[in-house]
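Give me structure tokens for this 123-residue protein.
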Amino acid sequence: QVQLVESGGGLVQAGGSLRLSCVTSGRTFSSYTMGWFRQAPGKERDFVALISWNGYSTDSADSVKGRFTISRDNAKNTVYLQMNSLKVEDTAVYYCAARNGAPSREVNGYGSWGQGTQVTVSS
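Here you go.
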């Protein structure tokens, strides 16, 4: 099983930027679809963005399109989420996840999860 550790969260003012990182263990990182999800208090965990194993295919939720960018560095076993023009409604715990299969937005399609990193956007 893949182990994932997120970092880069914090407190930022609206309009600011953060870059989240997710480092994975294991030799098969380059074969996994990687996703970012988020969960606000009292809400379900929602899809944010994903990237295919080779980085050629990405997808993102409409709410973050044009503001968030997902990328990966297979040599470093790391996936990133660059978040620009942050809004108060982006406040949530952000989770990195790995999927051994084709890209999917479904939470249940990911078998390995990190512990999450808190992102708080103030007005």
